[in-house]
């Protein structure tokens, strides 16, 4: 009898939802699901949704944001892969310091990044001094936005490519050489295809971060529409002028694009893990 | 005989030639990487410290008699003090639920947890304003019970908690998965209770992953700018966190003051990097986010 009742008891217990699930579900709904729904509802109940979303100011802000972020992340795709290669394959003085410094853009608060970049590239800053005589202006221009985006998204490519390179066996390359492939052939035909999923994942992660970036870009840019105004700053400005509908619409457009990028990243990672199994 | 000789000769020659070329290539690649990292990372980082101390330590120290600066430090510490424990508890629960159970939609839940990494901080702040602001969903109720969230500390904490939500869960899930459940089950058959299993078996196994997540959460919580800027209203001495103080000072052309405050956050970044490197050496995790 006692045995039976203890079995029913334990069965009851297992039917009950574990409290860890309740906390997880509750917190996620409260912090993520409800806010996202609120944003979608607020934007979709705005009658002038398309007018606001496709207004010339908004279009130019998307242009500055997405094109600049794309250029910045592709730039980091090339140099990030190079840095990962150098860190994995070669030895040089202060390698550990360099390796640790790659994470600095992540650890440094974005307003500090913006402040110091603005100072370095101001006409009397370290880099500005060299660039101003050449007629290149960085602060308060789109170039400045690009440099801030390069700074904050550099870590991603390095950190996604590094582990793949570390695991890649040198034998594969060596057998390619012994079969008569040149160094460049080996790189293009053997190494690069294996690294590609990781490189693209890193580029996509960096792009996603650059698109959403606010702190460093708002400080280095002049935030003038049609010049260097980015979409997150536009959302901020709309909110500051209490134009909630405008802010919600543009915020919604950005949220949808973020979701698409997140989906793409997941696909890329699935592609990359297929390589692992082989 | 002559043939063998020539072959050996050509082999050695070729080897030697390619080795010299390889060496040159290596130096070139290292050189380019170092120049890039110096321009993008080292120069700006170094600049924070040189600008802050170019007139000696006096401006840095005198900042500590500035009430607004002190209140910004206090607010930043309060934010971290609330957000880090809350997101650690959530992260542990979520990691447990996800790593210890197989259920449909598991991958989807992981993506949902990752969402704050993809959403722009400004949009995150906007969502909080749309919910708890005056015109928001809960605006009226909040006004009735006289609770201010937006333009006050609770809103700032909510925004920061949103941004830092994924870190702990994300670092703990893979460690838990790798650990497996055999040890926990063994403890259970030996009569250990849930709490005992957690403290004695699970926690010692996941401690480095957990610590890593906590370090990242703390760095981001203290340094978050965008989301906090949207919900804070930026009232000096009241709702201004340290990163906001830096921006405000810069905007008001008090560059010296801005850098004196920025150097504190720069030190935070350095401490974070050192702690991160130590934990990485213990566990060989490497993750940007």
Question: How would the blueprint of this fold be written?
Answer:
The complex is a heterodimer of chains A (278) and B (289).
Chain A: H1 2-15, H2 19-44, H3 49-53, H4 56-89, H5 95-101, H6 104-107, H7 110-120, H8 126-131, H9 142-167, H10 170-178, H11 183-212, H12 215-220, H13 231-240, H14 244-277
Chain B: H1 2-52, H2 58-62, H3 67-99, H4 106-118, H5 121-132, H6 139-144, H7 153-163, H8 166-179, H9 182-189, H10 194-223, H11 226-232, H12 242-251, H13 255-283
Helix pairs in contact in B: 1-13, 3-7, 3-8, 3-10, 3-12, 5-7, 5-11, 7-11, 8-10, 9-10, 10-13, 12-13
Brief characterization of the structure:
The complex is a heterodimer of chains A (278) and B (289). Chain A has 278 residues and is mainly α.
Question: What does the model show?
Answer:
The complex is a heterodimer of chains A (278) and B (289). Chain A is mostly helical. Chain A has helices at 2-15, 19-44, 49-53, 56-89, 95-101, 104-107, 110-120, 126-131, 142-167, 170-178, 183-212, 215-220, 231-240, 244-277. Chain A is globular and about 65 Å long. Chain B is mostly helical and 289 residues long. Chain B is 79% helix and 0% strand. Chain B has helices spanning 2-52, 58-62, 67-99, 106-118, 121-132, 139-144, 153-163, 166-179, 182-189, 194-223, 226-232, 242-251, 255-283. The longest helix of chain B has 51 residues, at 2-52. Residues 7-14 of chain B have low confidence and may be disordered. At the A-B interface, helix 2, helix 4, helix 5, helix 6 and helix 7 of A face helix 1, helix 3, helix 4, helix 5 and helix 7 of B.
């Amino acid at each position: 009898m006692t045995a039976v009742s203890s079995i029913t008891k334990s069965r009851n217990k297992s039917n009950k939802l574990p409290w860890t699930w309740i906390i997880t579900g509750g917190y996620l709904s409260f912090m993520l699901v409800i806010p996202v729904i609120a944003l979608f509802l607020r934007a979709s109940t705005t009658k002038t949704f398309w007018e606001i979303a496709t207004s010339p100011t908004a279009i130019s802000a998307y242009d500055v944001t997405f094109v600049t972020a794309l250029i910045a992340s592709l730039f980091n795709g090339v140099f990030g892969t190079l840095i990962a290669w150098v860190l994995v394959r070669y030895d040089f003085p202060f390698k550990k310091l360099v390796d640790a410094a790659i994470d600095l853009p992540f650890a440094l608060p974005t307003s500090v990044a913006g402040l110091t970049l603005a100072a370095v590239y101001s006409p009397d800053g370290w880099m500005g001094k060299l660039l101003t005589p050449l007629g290149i202006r960085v602060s308060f221009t789109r170039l400045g936005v690009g440099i801030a985006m390069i700074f904050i998204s550099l870590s991603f490519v390095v950190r996604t490519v590094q582990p793949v390179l570390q695991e890649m066996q040198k034998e594969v390359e060596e057998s390619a050489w012994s079969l008569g492939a040149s160094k460049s052939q080996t790189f293009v035909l053997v190494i690069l295809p294996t690294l590609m999923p990781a490189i693209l994942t890193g580029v996509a992660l960096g792009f996603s971060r650059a698109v959403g970036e606010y702190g460093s870009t708002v400080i280095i840019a002049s935030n003038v529409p049609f010049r260097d105004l980015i979409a997150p700053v536009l959302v901020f400005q709309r909110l500051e002028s209490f134009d909630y509908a405008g802010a919600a619409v543009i915020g919604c457009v950005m949220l949808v694009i973020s979701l698409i990028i997140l989906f793409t990243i997941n696909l890329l990672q699935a592609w990359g893990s297929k390589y692992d199994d082989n | 005989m002559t043939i063998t000789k020539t072959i050996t000769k050509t082999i050695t020659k070729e080897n030697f030639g390619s080795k010299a070329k390889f060496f040159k290539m290596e130096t070139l690649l290292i050189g380019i990487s170092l120049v890039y990292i110096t321009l993008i990372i080292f120069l700006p980082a170094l600049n924070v410290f040189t600008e802050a101390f170019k007139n000696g330590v006096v401006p840095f120290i005198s900042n500590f008699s500035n009430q607004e600066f002190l209140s910004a430090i206090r607010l930043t510490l309060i934010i971290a003090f609330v957000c880090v424990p809350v997101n650690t508890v959530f992260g542990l629960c979520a990691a447990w639920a996800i790593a210890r159970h197989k259920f449909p939609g598991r991958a989807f839940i992981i993506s949902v947890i990752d969402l704050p990494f993809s959403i722009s901080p400004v949009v995150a702040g906007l969502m909080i304003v749309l919910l708890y602001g005056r015109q928001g969903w809960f605006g009226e109720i909040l006004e009735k019970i006289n609770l201010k969230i937006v333009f006050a500390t609770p809103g700032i904490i909510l925004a920061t908690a949103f941004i830092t939500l994924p870190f702990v869960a994300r670092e703990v899930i893979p460690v838990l998965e790798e650990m497996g459940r055999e040890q926990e089950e063994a403890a259970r058959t030996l009569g250990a209770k849930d709490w005992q299993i957690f403290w004695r078996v699970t926690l010692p196994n996941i401690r480095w992953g957990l610590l890593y997540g906590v370090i990242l959460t703390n760095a981001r919580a203290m340094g978050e700018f965008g989301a906090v800027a949207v919900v804070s209203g930026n009232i000096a001495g009241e709702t201004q966190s340290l990163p906001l103080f830096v921006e405000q000072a810069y905007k008001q052309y008090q560059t010296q003051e801005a850098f004196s405050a920025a150097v504190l956050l720069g030190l935070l970044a350095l401490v974070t990097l050192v702690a991160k490197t130590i934990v990485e050496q213990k566990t060989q995790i490497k993750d940007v986010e």
